[in-house]
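MODEL INPUT / OUTPUT PAIR
PAIR INDEX: 1
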Amino acid sequence: MKNILIAALLLVLFSGCSVMDLVPKEEDKLCRDYIALLKSGNVEEAAKQLDESIKTPDINEKLLQVAKVIDIGEIEEIKVLNFNYKTNIKNTNKVNYELEYEICYKDAFVHGYFSLVKENGKTTFLGVRFTPLKGPLEEMGKFTMAGKSIPHYSILILVVIAAGFSIYMFVLLLKSNFSKKWLWGIFILIGFTKITVYWNSTDIFFEPLTIQLLSAGSFKANSLAPWAVSVSIPLGAIIFYYILNKREKEKAAQAKMKAEALPAQEPSQEKQEPPVTENQKQE
């Protein structure tokens, strides 16, 4: 009961949270200030904030090239897309952060990526990357069939087949007399390996050591991210279908053999007495 109450409390606390509520304020401010610093062309100051491990003799020239990507007009808005952080187990005073932004101009959009490290209270940049976008991520991330290619349609068809086949085999399992149904059920409902297609591109990713419920899925990293559709091999459902089909064939064969082994019924050969005549009755 105590665990349920704690879980409910956490759900209430985080249900109203947005990405901005969870982003570390200090690191978010550093990234936004760094964007303004690069846009102003002050690469000397920008270089000072880089981690020593990535500083090279030509770092100022590299920063100038990076700055050109975002120096394309007045920035109207900077939206947080995603963030991540991890603590070093061996050194608890060291924390790595990753933050992603959508930088919005009047007629242009840029994706920004920052990698930071905080050690002993000092934060430096491990990496900075800006990538021009074809349009706003909110529009690019919408799920639409317009203008899609063969890989998009193919993955959708495979998703329907894989999920439908898995569910159908699970229903047949429940109706069968198989032993250890719970174990078979898990095996049937899980797909192995994963092929993922991002909906706003033709990028295809293959993950060999992955499992997926119902052998199909779709997800968005956040509200602005593009949809990703994935399909897995329903190995458990395929094996169950093979075994079930084999059993049905064996049952049909046994039934046929029993039917052929039964003796044919012969017509009744009971001796019929001749009718009694009038003379026989008198005697």
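PAIR INDEX: 2
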Amino acid sequence: MGKEVIEGSLEWIEPDGNGGFASGTAGGVRTRRYHALLLAGGTERVVLVNGFEAWIDVGGATFPLSTQRYAPDVTYPRGIDHLVAFTSDPWPRWTFALPDGTVIAHEVAVSLQVTVCAWRRIAVSRRSRSLSGCTSP
């Protein structure tokens, strides 16, 4: 998948089987009000977890793994700069390649009981230390 597709308008959705879902774009930027990691269904949809900011510390340098757009010309952090692949099969999975050779996979899986956001190191640099992140409202 080319970078132009990742940065474009490709969207994904993972239903929970109970009227709720997780959804977003391949590039990670939420472009619609219902793009969220956890949206409860029912008679009225409610966003419970809108998004997060994630980063990895490698050899004293911090690299973002998430991307937010706050205004048409303000994008921060820029995890998309490290994004090299996206697939939605069997569930959404992003692959990030860092300058030191560290490769990170981020996956989102949704079921009736739980929504899971997981990060894994696929290739490890000797300088990799920790994966850090936070959830934002």
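PAIR 2 NOTE: Residues 128-137 have pLDDT under 50 and may be disordered.
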